Structure formats: C-alpha cells, structure tokens
Amino acid sequence: MSRTVLAAILATTALAGAVQAQDAVTLTIESWRNDDLGIWNDTIIPAFEASHPNINLEFAPTAPAEYNAVLNSKLQAGSAGDIITCRPFDASLELFNNGQLADLTDLGAMANFSDVAKSAWTTDEGASTFCVPMASVIHGFIYNKTAFDELGLTEPTTEEEFFAVLDALKEDGTYIPMAMGTNDQWEAATMGYQNIGPNYWKGEEGRAALIAGTQKLTDPEWVAPFEQLARWKDYLGDGFEAQTYPDSQNLFTLGRAAIFPAGSWEISVFNPQVDFEMGAFPPPVQNAGDTCYISDHTDIGIGMNAATEHADEAREFLEWVGSTEFANLYGNALPGFFPLSNGEVTLEDPLAQEFISWRDQCESTIRSTYAILSRGTPNLENETWNASANVINGTEAPADAATRLQEGLDAWYTPAQ
Amino acid sequence: MAARRPIRWHIAVFLAPAVLVYTAIMIVPLFGTLNLSLYGATDDGPRFVGLANFRALFGNPMWSDAFWNALGNNVWFFVIHMLVQNPIGVLLAAILSSPRLRFRAFYRTAIFVPTILSFVAVAWVWRLILGNTWGIAPMFLDSLGLKSLYAPWLGKEEYALTTLALISVWQFVGIPMMLIYAALLSIPDEVLEAAEMDGITGWSRFRRVQLPLILPSIGIISILTFVGNFNAFDLIYVAQGALAGPDFSTDILGTFLYRTFFGFQLQLGDPNMGAAIATAMFLIILTGVCLYLFGVQRRLRRYQF
C-alpha cells in the first residue's frame, strides 16, 4: 500500500473519530433477538436517530441460548453495552440485585405501563422497576377460517361450544381438529395449560393467591385446566405423542389441521406460509357471560447497564422506547409481539389486531409459573411441562399431576406469611 | 561400583508434551469437577459442603428418583447395544469376510456410512420416518397391511427408549463390524486351512477357530460400547430434548447431567450438583472399566502367529 493512501486512511479515521466524539454518543444494545437485527437496523434505529441526532445506536445481539451467559460475563468484565435487553422475571431481577441493572422507577415513560406489564421487571415488593416493558405475547387459538366456513362452524366462546366445534371437525374427518403434539412438552404446558388456565384460576387473582399460599395447585380452579387438557387427546392427530412443535406448525400451515393452540408469535411465522384465511379466538370461558382472562405474557423488556458512561443518553433512549411512537414501530414490524404501552397503538396485521383486541374484552395475566414460583428445585415451570404432556397423553390423571406439582412446590416454597 | 548413571533427561523431554497437554485438558478438569462437587451454593456464596451433594443425590427422593431412573435407562440402553449391536456387528463381519461375497466394498461402506453422520441428521431423519406427521413408517406398514402395528414409538413411554437405542444401534453397528472384520482378516490362512484339513468348515470353523481368535476384539468393543453408552447424550437430546420425554422415560445420565449442570428453561443451572452427577458417572464408568480390565481382559488368551 502506498504511503499516501495509508496516510489518507489514517487521516479519515482520525477525523471520523473526532467528529463522533464531538457530536454523538454511541449506545450499544445487548439483545438475544438476533432475528430482529434487520428490524432494528432498518426501522427502529433510523427513526430514533432522526429525532435524536446526538445519539447513535448499535444493536448487538447474541444467540438466544447463549444470551444469559454471555451477558453475565460481559457485565462482570465491564464490557457490556449501555442498554440491556431484559429477560422477564428472575434472570433480570438477579442482575438488578447485583447492581448491574440501573433502577428506572423514576423514568417518565413508566407511567405508560400498567402494573401487570411492569411485573416482570419489578422487585418482589413492588418498590423498584428496572426495565421498560417492551413486548408481550398473547395466547389463544388460531384457526383455519376457510375450513370453518366450509363446515359452517363459528368461533366458539364457551367450553361447550369449543368441544362441539372439535366434535364437528372430527366427525367430518377432512381436517385434524387440533394441531398439537406432546413430544416437546412445552407446547402442552405453554399453549395448553397456560393458554386456557387463566379462565379457571381467574388470571391475576389466582396467580397472586398461589404465590400468597391461599390457593394450592390441587384446588379445583388449578386442576380444571388439566381436566380440559385430558379431553384434548381425542382431537389431536394420530401419533401426537411423537409430534414435535415444528410438526404441529406444519400440520396447520399446510391446511391439514383446523385449530392451532397458539401464542401470538406464530402470526409472523404463519403469515407468509399459509394460503388460506386465518382467524383467532380467545380461550373459551366456562359459561357464557363469564369474564374472560387471557395470558398476556410479558416477554421482553429493556433496561440500562448500571455501569454505563452515558446514563443520560441511555435514559433518553429508554424514554423513547416507552413512547407510543416506539410501540407503533415495534408492534407493526413484529406482528405478534405486542407493545405493552397503554398508549394508542395501531396494528396493521388483522390477526394481530384480533389478538390485541382481547385486551379490551378480557383481563390480562401472565403465565402462572414464571414469577417467584420457579426459583427452586424442582422447578415448577419444568414440572408443569412434564405434567401437561402426561395429562394429554393420558398417562397421568389430572388430579395426580396437580398433587405432584403441589408436592414439588411445597418442597422448597414457603409463602410469605 | 560403576559410576552413577547420568540422569536421562531425554525421557522427561519426550514425555513432556503428552503429559502436559493431557494434564491440562484432562486431569486438571477432572479434578476440578471432583472438587466442584464438594461445594454448594449457600446464601453467602459457594462453600465447602463435603459430601452433602452426594447425600442429596442418593438420599433425597427428589434427586435420587431421577438419578436411579436415569441409571436404569442407561443400563437398558447399554443392554440393547450389547445384545443387538455387537452380535449384528460380528455377524456382518463374518459375512463380509466370506471369500465368496461379491460387492464386499460396497456393503462395507454402506453399513459404515451412518457412523459418520451427525446425530442431528440421524435423529431428524428417524423422527420423519417414525413420526405420523409425514407418515413413512405408517404408510409402509399400511402397504403391507400391518397398519395396526404402528404406534408413535418415540412418543410412548414403553417404547421410546428402546426405539432410540435401536436408532443408535443402526448408526453405530459399523464400528464393531469394522473392528471384527479387521480381526478376522488378520487370522492367517494357514490356520483356517489347517482347520479345513481337519474337516472343520462353515459354522463350526467360525465357532471353534475364528471366534476364539477374535475374542480380544469383542472384549474391546464391549468396553468401548460401555463407555460410549454411559457417556451418551447427543441422540437423546436431539431427538427428545433436554427433558427426555415422554415423562423422563428416555432420560439417561448424560441428559440428567445436562439439565442439572446447565439448567433448563426457567431452572437455573446448578454446577455443584451437576459436578456431583458427573462424578457419579465417572465412578460408574471407572468401576465398569476396572471390572473388565482385571476380571476379563487378563483372562483372555491371546494367540500369536
């Protein structure tokens, strides 16, 4: 390389450095959402930088499975980014307790979020919040509208109607009534138990009672969802015991199954794959007219590295993440990940609109096993996976599964008196 | 008296690379694991707890049930390999070494190929074959009029582990086959000819002449199978996930260790308990290998030609 070129390159780097130092601060965002790299670089970051010329953002995601470990070591080594994407509940709570996440309770944007939305990133006693809630996923049932129209079926609203629809589908025989397998276990727990459960344990009321110890997993309202799941067995495809989650997705998107017990994140997966019209209905209630409850599970938050050198700029960015502008950008870029903000959010995807509309009709809650109750061994969430799969397989009676879960919980958890 | 012999430095120098590398990547971590299993997390950080982890592992039903379940499954996994994989391997080798067999190289390669496939591919392909969603096994059975024999084997508690063990046998049968084949080829023709002169041919030649000569190889294969099976993890993890469903019926020591050490989903990892399980696995394998070395290996008769 010739001397002049070298000198020129050196000069440009020096200049660029100088310009940056004068004008803008660069904030690095740690995240596990490497799928979202394009959305951040093309949509979110340009929008933010346009209105905040003094701040540059760099989105630096790690692979989801490695995120917690990588983040922990980076935080310990002092090399973590300024902005930290927060896992819900205990993983982030531990970082906050270690003084690695900053307290954001006094952030103005926090006023835009409900207590349920903030619960995943708030200390047990509710005093401090350390991450801005970013998105939640809602559970419900996605169905093949074309198939429903063909057979003259309508969206069920009650338990009875739900099984009537399943019976009709089964009798017709063209479609597998419901696409779900028990091989991966989490489908049974997350899209089964946690999906329909809140209607029985009355959402937050039951969840709080379980944490307080005034209700047990062996109480009727916690056993009832298992009893429902036990009835699902007859409506799943042949060999569902060995069916994996991708198998279930394929059965539905190929039009072979009519109903998919879902999380809203499926919307962006299904949209490009299906050639029929999709609809969605919330988990059916026990009796017509009952209040409905939905699992509106807080999944992603965003917080600040307590050791950042640019705390002011980071807070400025977090205020923006809490704004309606961000909620609209994010909600539309990723249909199925719903902003948690109370502000007016307009979603364009019809299926996403349907899911989010349930927030107005129903009471929101989060998955019952996520907060506090999965801190010990045996781990309640993992046990619930196993129990839900067993119940659907018919190898464990609902009441036995519930008893086993409660015994496991009793082994380490003593509710605060 | 002869003069003291000089210290032979070259021995140390030549041994050093292997000793250093082996110590650094095998011995030190091994003792690190043993050491780790004697510590436990308490409210004020990790502390020395003696054998408390082992007492929990064997005494607390919450841990011991899972441990014995995993160990029992592991034994069954090993038994299937010993009863199916190794006899088939010996049989294939015997057939391959028959001088009248044509396309020998083709069979040898075809049977050995699965061994070099990735576990991920093997588990995935077999899931597709056995599952009902894409229906290769049910369709095949249906065409034979045997549809009623079909079951989602990987999803049934009573079949899943055996199915996985047989998949593993399918994948690895090439290894005993190759080792035995090599042993059979190394038997000098003179020995076989002499047997023939004495009128020993066919099956009885195999049983009375060849089998005794390949016994040391069968011993080595058995011990390799034992160590491999008790360290197995990949196939179960890829096919059934870390929870080794349905209802832990395919849980073996490897998956149990993985779940405990690294944690799973909301369960945080417990390195100390994990190390205790790893230590137990180490001791099981050590015992097995010692029994073999002192009980069997030394009694095997070797022949030199």
Overall SS class of chain B: mainly alpha
Q: Major sheet of chain A, described briefly? A: 10 strands, mixed
So, CATH architecture of the largest domain in chain A? 3-Layer(aba) Sandwich
Instruction: Find the count of extended strands of chain B (DSSP E, 2+ residues).
Output: 4
Low-confidence stretches of chain B: none
At the fourth CATH level, what is the homologous superfamily of the largest domain in chain A?
Answer: Periplasmic binding protein-like II
CATH fold field value of chain B: MetI-like fold
Whole-number radius of gyration of chain B? 24 Å
Number of domains of chain B: 1
Which overall shape of chain B is indicated by the principal axes computed on the Cα atoms? flat
Shape of chain A: globular
Give the fraction of residues assigned to helices of chain B. Answer: 55-70%
Give the SSE layout:
The complex is a heterodimer of chains A (417) and B (305).
Chain A: H1 3-23, E1 25-31, H2 37-51, E2 55-61, H3 67-77, E3 83-86, H4 90-97, H5 115-118, E4 131-144, H6 145-150, H7 159-172, E5 176-178, H8 186-196, H9 198-201, H10 203-212, H11 220-232, H12 245-253, E6 257-263, H13 266-270, E7 278-281, E8 293-304, H14 311-321, H15 324-333, E9 338-339, H16 350-361, E10 363-365, H17 380-393, H18 398-410
Parallel strand pairs in A: 1-2, 1-3, 5-6, 8-10
Antiparallel strand pairs in A: 3-8, 4-6, 4-7, 4-8, 4-9
Helix pairs in contact in A: 8-17, 11-17, 11-18, 17-18
Chain B: H1 9-36, E1 39-42, E2 45-48, H2 52-59, H3 61-96, H4 104-112, H5 119-130, H6 136-143, H7 160-172, H8 174-185, H9 189-197, H10 202-230, H11 234-240, H12 253-262, E3 263-264, E4 267-268, H13 271-296
Antiparallel strand pairs in B: 1-2, 3-4
Helix pairs in contact in B: 1-13, 2-3, 3-7, 3-8, 3-10, 3-12, 5-11, 8-10, 10-13, 12-13
Structure description:
The complex is a heterodimer of chains A (417) and B (305). Chain A contains 18 helices and ten strands. In chain A, strands 1, 2, 3, 4, 5, 6, 7, 8, 9 and 10 form a ten-stranded mixed sheet that branches. In chain A, strand 1, helix 2 and strand 2 form a beta-alpha-beta unit. Chain A is 46% helix and 15% strand. In chain A, helix 8 crosses helix 17, helix 11 packs across helix 17 and helix 17 runs antiparallel to helix 18. Chain A has two domains: 164 residues, Periplasmic binding protein-like II (D-Maltodextrin-Binding Protein, domain 2, 3-Layer(aba) Sandwich), CATH 3.40.190; 203 residues, D-Maltodextrin-Binding Protein, domain 2. In chain B, helix 3 runs antiparallel to helix 10 and helix 5 crosses helix 11. Chain B is flat, with a radius of gyration of 24 Å. By secondary structure, chain B is mostly helical. The mean pLDDT of chain B is 90. Chain B has a single domain, classed as MetI-like (MetI-like fold). Chains A and B meet through helix 12 and helix 17 of A and strand 4 of B.
